[in-house]
Structures are given as C-alpha cells and as structure tokens.
Amino acid sequence: MPFKRFVEIGRVALVNYGKDYGSLVVIVDVVDQNRALVDGPGMVRHQVNFKRLSLTDIKIDIKRSPKKKFLIAAMEAGDVKNKWEKSSWGKKLIVQKRRAAMNDFDRFKVMLARIKRSTVVNQELAKLKKEAKA
Amino acid sequence: MGQFRFHQYQVVGRALPTEKDDKPKAYRMKLWATNEVRAKSKFWYFLRKLKKVKKSNGQILAINEIYEKKLTITENYGIWLRYQSRTGYHNMYKEFRDTTLNGAVEQMYTEMASRHRVRFPCIQIIKTATVPDELCKRDNTKQFHSENIKFPLIFKKVRPSSRKLKTTYKASRPNIFK
C-alpha cells in the first residue's frame, strides 16, 4: 500500500500528546528527521516531535516558514476548519467532545431517545418477520 | 519548547589587581554549562590554560546568560569541537539542524556521548556558527534543505495521550501503519 499522508510543508496535523493535545496545526518547516516546526492560529510557532503528531489528509498551500498572517490566510483559503469538521475523523472527535461534556440530564435524554428509536426499529422488524413467516 | 540542559553563558573575568599590574586585562568567554556555578568553573578551566591566572588569584566580573533571540526559525548549526578520546585529542566538526543554538549544543553532547562515548568534561567547544544552506557539509543536514521536502512517516505508533493512560497489556495489536 503506498503512503498517502506525507510530512510536507503545509500538511495539517493533529497533536496527539502533550500540552496542545487535540489542536490542529500546520507543518511549517521540517527541522530534521524527527521534528517539525509547527504553527496554528492562536499558538506560538514551536517545534514538535513527529511522535506527537497525527498527519491528516488536509494540506494547504504555503511557502516554507510563512508569516503568521499568510499562514492564516492560507488556512482560510484551504478551508481547513470545514474540511476537518466534515471529515469522518473530525466528526468523531466532535462527537467525543460532546459526549464527554454531557451531564446526567443529557444522558437521561439520550437514553430516552435511544429507547424511542429502538422501539420504532423493533416494530418494523416484527412486521417484516410476520411477513416473512406468512 | 522549553528546558535546555545546557545554557549559554558569557563570563567575564580577570586576574586580581596587584602592585605589579593594577589594571589586568579582562577576558570574556562564551561557554555552555548546565548552570552558572559550573559556567564560572569552566571559565577558570579555560583561562588557566591560556593565561597565568587561577580562580584563587582572579575574579569574575560578570556572568550573564545568553538567550536565543528567535525560536521560530530552523537553522543549520555548525559546531567545531575538540574532544578527548581514549587514545588522544581530536578535532571535529559537526552539523545539526535545530531552532536554537542551545538545542543544537545539547544534540551535539548527546551525539558525542552515543557515537563516541565521550562525556561532557572531555569536550571543548571551539566555535559554533549558523551555517547557510549552501555551505553545509553533511548530507544528513543537506537533505532537509529542499523547499519541497516530503516524506511519509512509515512507523506510526499512536501513543496514549497521557502517561496516566499507559497500560502494560493491550487487548489488541497496535496498528502502526499511519
């Protein structure tokens, strides 16, 4: 299987360890085999080990080590935020965050909704079974 | 990116004034040490080798830490060093890519320890410089100069997001592809 996600200037990655856990960053320069200079809106540019990054499919068009405003402009042009939130990976993370932020009342509401959904499904299933038997 | 083991200090010292010489020359040195106390000690170590002065008949005039101005640019650092191996003294030139000089010096010390089994006391840094891309000598640093650098991460083990979530045993084998 060939590789599809490369470390390159402009690659968007997710930080999966450490202080910036969960934030999307852009690889702005490669320091060496193990580290990259990484930048994102709202953070200072700093170096990060590749072990702390998970590469995504998103890539934006920037030159090496661009100024902050060019980086943000390129992120807008590449529509990083929307692409990320529409991707299945991004969606999963959003759902995880919502679930983690639930209080007991929310969980109660979810339980009721699930019961409602399963009664509908089971009623249809019972109908189909009866037809199949007949 | 935080804490460095080695800090760069500027140490200025001179011999104590005597009746023969009441205005001794002051000497300044830039060196790397883990803390200020060690920096002053290293200063006397070098100065003893160069001038006829010791800590007992000298004084430190100033010691300041030198901080990196910009932490957000990757540079090629060339480090010239003199080290003592089991069989004698040798000179060496090493290149490192890093964002800060302190980081490059730390890389140098760890590399000398691993590759040549040479420890901190046996290494003297002669000179450090930022080297522009064209003048780099080592292929290992030159391969990162390309504007269109691109490589895959072939061995991607995803770690638990904090050390608290680490377990000795796992239910399934990890997927290390991407």
TrEMBL record, chain A:
<dbReference type="GO" id="GO:0003723">
    <property type="term" value="F:RNA binding"/>
</dbReference>
<dbReference type="InterPro" id="IPR002784">
    <property type="entry name" value="Ribosomal_eL14_dom"/>
</dbReference>
<dbReference type="GO" id="GO:0022625">
    <property type="term" value="C:cytosolic large ribosomal subunit"/>
</dbReference>
<keyword id="KW-0687">Ribonucleoprotein</keyword>
<dbReference type="GO" id="GO:0003729">
    <property type="term" value="F:mRNA binding"/>
</dbReference>
<keyword id="KW-0689">Ribosomal protein</keyword>
<feature type="domain" description="Large ribosomal subunit protein eL14">
    <location>
        <begin position="45"/>
        <end position="117"/>
    </location>
</feature>
<comment type="similarity">
    <text>Belongs to the eukaryotic ribosomal protein eL14 family.</text>
</comment>
<dbReference type="GO" id="GO:0003735">
    <property type="term" value="F:structural constituent of ribosome"/>
</dbReference>
<dbReference type="Pfam" id="PF01929">
    <property type="entry name" value="Ribosomal_L14e"/>
</dbReference>
<dbReference type="GO" id="GO:0006412">
    <property type="term" value="P:translation"/>
</dbReference>
<dbReference type="InterPro" id="IPR014722">
    <property type="entry name" value="Rib_uL2_dom2"/>
</dbReference>
<dbReference type="InterPro" id="IPR039660">
    <property type="entry name" value="Ribosomal_eL14"/>
</dbReference>
<dbReference type="GO" id="GO:0042273">
    <property type="term" value="P:ribosomal large subunit biogenesis"/>
</dbReference>
<protein>
    <submittedName>
        <fullName>60S ribosomal protein L14-1</fullName>
    </submittedName>
</protein>
<dbReference type="InterPro" id="IPR008991">
    <property type="entry name" value="Translation_prot_SH3-like_sf"/>
</dbReference>
UniProtKB/TrEMBL annotation, chain B:
<keyword id="KW-0687">Ribonucleoprotein</keyword>
<dbReference type="InterPro" id="IPR028877">
    <property type="entry name" value="Ribosomal_eL20"/>
</dbReference>
<comment type="similarity">
    <text>Belongs to the eukaryotic ribosomal protein eL20 family.</text>
</comment>
<keyword id="KW-0689">Ribosomal protein</keyword>
<dbReference type="GO" id="GO:0022625">
    <property type="term" value="C:cytosolic large ribosomal subunit"/>
</dbReference>
<dbReference type="GO" id="GO:0003735">
    <property type="term" value="F:structural constituent of ribosome"/>
</dbReference>
<dbReference type="GO" id="GO:0002181">
    <property type="term" value="P:cytoplasmic translation"/>
</dbReference>
<dbReference type="InterPro" id="IPR021138">
    <property type="entry name" value="Ribosomal_eL20_eukaryotes"/>
</dbReference>
<dbReference type="InterPro" id="IPR023573">
    <property type="entry name" value="Ribosomal_eL20_dom"/>
</dbReference>
<feature type="domain" description="Large ribosomal subunit protein eL20">
    <location>
        <begin position="7"/>
        <end position="128"/>
    </location>
</feature>
<dbReference type="Pfam" id="PF01775">
    <property type="entry name" value="Ribosomal_L18A"/>
</dbReference>
<protein>
    <recommendedName>
        <fullName>60S ribosomal protein L18a</fullName>
    </recommendedName>
</protein>
